[in-house]
Amino acid sequence: MRAPTEAVMPRQVRTARLLLLGMAFAGMVVILALQEGMTSYGLGDLVAPWILIWVCALLALTYGGRARGGIRVTTVVVMVFVLVSSFNQALGATAPSEFVDAALRIVLGLPVVVLLFLPATTAWFDRAK
Q1: pLDDT tens digit string along 98-116?
Q2: Residue 34, class by beta-carbon neighbours within 10 Å (0-12 exposed, 13-18 middle, 19+ buried)?
Q3: Angstrom distance (rounded) from CA 35 to CA 29
Q4: Is there a contact between 11 and 104 (Cβ–Cβ < 8 Å)?
Q5: Who's near 110: CB < 8 A, 6+ residues apart?
Q6: pTM of the entire structure?
């Protein structure tokens, strides 16, 4: 049972958390689907941006308890790196699979960054311990 003084996680934070966990799962599916016939260098290029997504998903697991503003800022900074590299990959894509891979990170990553800047989300991470 929840203590009466414990705050309830806002739905914006829950949505960002679910998006990050969903992106982590989607990354595994994309890698498994596209790995066939790739060299080790190609596989490294495919996996590199998804590793950052998995780091953000691990950070999202702390949103409910001990997370504070530093976790939110770290998630936003890492997601911005992912988005910039994904835009570069989408613009320079030579195969449809490269474009879809980058577009998936962009479509799911932009809402995460926006959600983490909303006032309710900022207030959640700035709450008292």
Answers
A1: 899 999 999 999 999 999 9
A2: middle
A3: 10
A4: no
A5: 83
A6: 0.87
Count of other CB atoms within 10 angstroms of residue 125:
17
Using alpha carbons, list the distances in angstroms from residue 104 to 25, 73, 90, 97: 12, 22, 10, 11
> What is the amino acid identity at position 8?
V
Q: What contacts 17, CB < 8 A, 6 or more positions away? A: 60, 61, 63, 64
User: What is the overall mean pLDDT for the chain?
Assistant: 89
Dihedral (C-alpha) 49, 52, 54, 56: value to the nearest 10 degrees?
-140
